[in-house]
Amino acid sequence: MQKSHTYKFILCLIGILSCVLLFFLTRSVCGTGDEARAESYADIYTYGDSSAEETKIFCQELEGEWYLFLPSREADTVHLYGIEHGTEDVALSEEQETIYESDFGKLHILRSQNIPSVYFTSEDPAEFGRDYIDQDNDHENRTSGSLALCNSNGKLSMREGVDQIRVRGNSTALLEKKPYKVTLHKKQDLLSDGSKQTDYALLAGAADPSLIRNRLSYDLQKELSYPHSIQAENVDLYYDGEYRGNYLLTELPGIERTDARLAPQQLNNDRQNSGLSSDTVTTLSDTNGYGLPFTYIVEAKAPDKVDGGYLVEMDNAYYETSLNVFMTSYGSHFEVVSPKYCSKEEMLYISELFERMYRTVQGNGTSPDSGLSLDTYFDYDSLAAMWSISEVTGNLDAFNSSTYFYTLEGQEKIYGGPLWDFDNGAGVSIWDSDETMDYWHWIDFMDIYKIKKANGTYYQTMIAPMIDDFVRQKCKAYTEELAWSAAMDDLIWPGRDKSNAEYISEVETYYHERNQSIMRDINEYPDEVVSGTIAIGNRDFAVGAKINLRPIYSPTEDGISIKNLSCRSEDKTWDLSTGPVEDTYEEGREYLFFMTIEPNFGRKFDPGIQFEFANGKIISQEMNADGKIELVLSSGMPKVENTVYEGIDYDLVYDKDYYLSHYPEVFDEVGDGDEDVLRYFIEEGIPEGEQGCEHFSVLTYLEANDAMLRPYYGEDYSAILEHYLIGGGYEGGFTGDPTQKAITEGEEDGAESTD
């Protein structure tokens, strides 16, 4: 009896151990305890980075063949899960493709190289996966999930929650390979450029077989030091474990890409309206002072000031679905992108500002209402850069759709930028391959002589000399970088009849021919003849000619340069027309200079033109064979005062003679040596709020801009002065001139007494 019980116990124990063994064997074969044994390659998977579950990659069936698309990685093996014995390491070929054989047949293992990989995992792939998102072209369907980013070595570099992913774009949303907009839960620097954002785009480039047109356009902006350039990088995209091809990961053209990002009005609007949602707000229509329609958000609260900090997009195709829209007399439609929720007061301001600009265009550059010129309302320099980059890239959307502008607080002036969306460009079009640029909404604008000349000058000097070499070098780099990823993309999105290298070569050819065509057009612009008598140094002369000046003789040891000749004139140019100032020139010394004057693009000198030199005399004047004027000048030499301290130039706020005359105790402390007085002013005077020159006082600057400065700097006068010099205060037009303040107050008093 005892033996029988013992025997049954042993059998029971064996049964239990067998179940346990079977349990672990099943986990080993299938990879996890929740999965069944692999029955086909559909059950086989791997990871981009084995430490991150979000980077799971499944095999995919294409045209009856099975593929596993691997991201760029250092490893020369791939670890497969779900095979017959649980897992297996497969050695990868030195070539892009490795063939793996098993009971399931042949598996094509392809790998990318040189570029990062992005993995998006839906929160509920079954109900709200990629099919749910892709079927909606109106941007309504959206879902949440997580995003992981691996570098080109295959290592996880970032993971973050995703609040929302949806299809983005207008015409591109209608194509099979969908572009996406991703909104992260927290700001991240996905492109390693030091800028953290929540919103990013994954551009599909579905109409671009080369996969480089958008990226080349953004890289060109960076090469030109365009101030609002977009960062972008090619990546391999995996959506819910499925490879979806080569995409361009980019920043979005938000207000943070412009100088308006610092505007208190923008910050106040965001703070006051942070609780609003585009799904629940109420929009109403109204008309502005010109009788033109706009829409606004009823619930939006207006900030105290509405005169700046706007990012506006021209969108004549899809404006009807936007919240804040206005129309101009040209029929152009604009959406206010930022602030996101605009009050009636804000929409009145921005819509009327744009209309004033358009009415000035209709007046051929002069406002029919105020008599002011177009450069009062529009910044020519930013427009010239926009036009030139749009032209050379052949951007068909330029000045019709996806074209951005911004304004700065306190300035009734419109700036161009950022530049974005080059899907229709460089010889390809989503709609019609024969379409050409027309500028229909801006044709009168571009025909204004000064605009045309400014555009031509920028192109001729900034783009024409560098574009061929730049494109050639970039295309060579892209060809090497994208070869394997492009081959994988071609399997997912077939239809190309050439290699990626051949398509990239076509882009290079396009840019070369495009540049030649633009230069032919520019060279046909009629020249403006400059004649009469011109005083060297006046404003028209400074902006109307290129000047080269070198000394023929100077009694100083180091000679002199153009920098030495600079003075603190209002126009920020050296000015030799005002005559010598006795205390800034050494008496009894004659200095000779050789000057060449070349007219700017679009101008030429009349052979009978004469120059005057109020700061001395002209020894000789001749016109050379190139149409340049050559002069020999005789003048005194300016006194050079060093105003640079620890890398910062205090020239705008410091004049040694003024400072010593108003603070005589400084002489008692340090004497009158240039370096000693400057150091005392910076280290001792500024912290006490002392004034270093006639036209700037840090106390006046703080008072005039109190709401902007005091919350950040308090009464730290050194930090406030640094903000003025290098933090944007000077370029932003914020005044710190006590003499101007006095005049303004006097005018206001006079106005009140008149009433």
TL;DR of this structure?
With 755 residues, the protein is an alpha+beta fold. The protein is built from 20 helices and 32 strands.
Structure commentary:
This protein has 755 residues and is α+β, with helices and mostly antiparallel strands. The protein has five domains: 1-37; 38-252, no CATH class; 272-463, no CATH class; 528-635, no CATH class; 644-754, no CATH class. 32% of the residues lie in helices and 25% in strands. It is built from 20 helices and 32 strands. It has a seven-stranded mixed beta barrel. A hairpin with a 2-residue loop joins strand 14 (232-239) and strand 15 (242-251). Helix 7 crosses helix 9 (449-463), helix 10 (467-492) packs antiparallel against helix 11 and helix 17 packs across helix 19 (717-726). The longest helix has 29 residues, at 2-30. Residues 20-35, 538-544, 551-588 and 741-755 have low confidence and may be disordered.
Topology, please?
Elements: H1 2-30, E1 45-47, E2 56-58, E3 60-62, E4 65-70, E5 77-83, E6 86-91, E7 97-102, E8 105-111, E9 117-122, H2 125-128, H3 130-134, E10 143-150, E11 156-167, E12 180-188, E13 197-203, H4 213-223, E14 232-239, E15 242-251, H5 264-272, E16 283-287, E17 293-297, E18 310-315, E19 325-327, E20 333-338, H6 344-362, H7 380-393, E21 401-407, E22 414-416, H8 443-447, H9 449-463, H10 467-492, H11 500-523, E23 528-530, E24 533-535, H12 539-544, E25 545-553, H13 562-565, E26 591-599, E27 603-605, E28 610-612, E29 616-623, E30 629-635, E31 644-645, E32 648-649, H14 656-662, H15 665-670, H16 674-685, H17 698-704, H18 706-713, H19 717-726, H20 738-754
Parallel strand pairs: 4-8, 9-14, 23-27, 24-28
Antiparallel strand pairs: 1-2, 3-4, 5-6, 7-8, 9-10, 10-11, 11-12, 12-13, 13-15, 14-15, 16-17, 18-20, 18-21, 19-20, 21-22, 25-26, 26-30, 29-30, 31-32
